């Protein structure tokens, strides 16, 4: 697992994700969203999408959950098909948030990982 912290000046986003996944394996992706002014915040319509190396979406849009997690924290367990090609893939987190001043933001953050062949 790898941890990636992205600081945009307005947002601090912490991503915890696998770097290498075997086809057929279930992997957990986690993210937390901290607004510079409002602290940890829940996004409106949070999403998680997976893309291949040609930027083609390889699964339906996933809805991450917050079960057993704090405010602004999300996770999603996902099983990658045994039929996917090996190579570099992208996980894209997205959502919207309106801060305490009424300013809306749309957030998209991407992380890369490798899918390889083999048994889970």
Question: What would your notes on this structure say?
Answer:
There is one protein chain. With 120 residues, the chain is an all-beta fold. It has a single domain (2-116), classed as Immunoglobulin-like. The protein is built from no helices and nine strands. The chain has strands at residues 2-7, 11-17, 20-22, 26-35, 39-40, 44-51, 73-79, 87-98, 104-116. Strands 1, 2, 4, 5 and 7 form a five-stranded antiparallel β-sheet that branches. A hairpin with a 3-residue loop joins strand 4 (26-35) and strand 5 (39-40). The radius of gyration is 15 Å and the shape is elongated. The two termini are 15 Å apart.
Could you give a quick summary of the protein structure above?
This protein is an all-beta fold and 120 residues long.
Note the topology.
Layout lengths: L1 E6 L3 E7 L2 E3 L3 E10 L3 E2 L3 E8 L21 E7 L7 E12 L5 E13 L4
Parallel strand pairs: 3-9
Antiparallel strand pairs: 1-2, 2-4, 4-5, 4-7, 6-8, 8-9
Nearest-integer average pLDDT: 92
For the termini, the CA-CA separation is: 15 Å
Helical run tally: 0
The CATH topology is: Immunoglobulin-like
How do the helices and strands follow one another from N- to C-terminus? EEEEEEEEE
CATH class: Mainly Beta
Give the % helix.
under 10%
List the domain count as a whole number: 1
* Rg calc: 15 Å
CATH superfamily: Macroglobulin (MG2) domain
- Main sheet, how many strands, which sense, barrel? 5 strands, antiparallel
Overall strand count: 9
Structural class, by secondary structure, is mainly beta
Oligomer: single chain
- Could you list the spans in which at least 5 consecutive residues all have pLDDT below 50? none
Name of the CATH architecture: Sandwich
Shape: elongated
């Amino acid at each position: 697992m790898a941890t990636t912290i992205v600081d945009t000046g307005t947002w601090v986003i912490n991503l915890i994700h696998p770097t290498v996944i075997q086809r057929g394996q279930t992997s957990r992706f986690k993210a937390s969203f901290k607004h510079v002014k409002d602290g940890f915040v829940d996004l409106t319509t949070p999403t998680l999408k997976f893309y291949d190396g040609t930027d083609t979406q390889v699964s339906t849009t996933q809805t991450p959950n917050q079960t057993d997690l704090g405010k602004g924290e999300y996770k999603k367990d996902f099983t990658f098909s045994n039929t996917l090609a090996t190579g570099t893939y992208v996980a894209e987190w997205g959502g919207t948030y309106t801060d305490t001043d009424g300013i809306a933001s749309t957030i998209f953050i991407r992380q890369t990982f490798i899918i390889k062949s083999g048994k889970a």
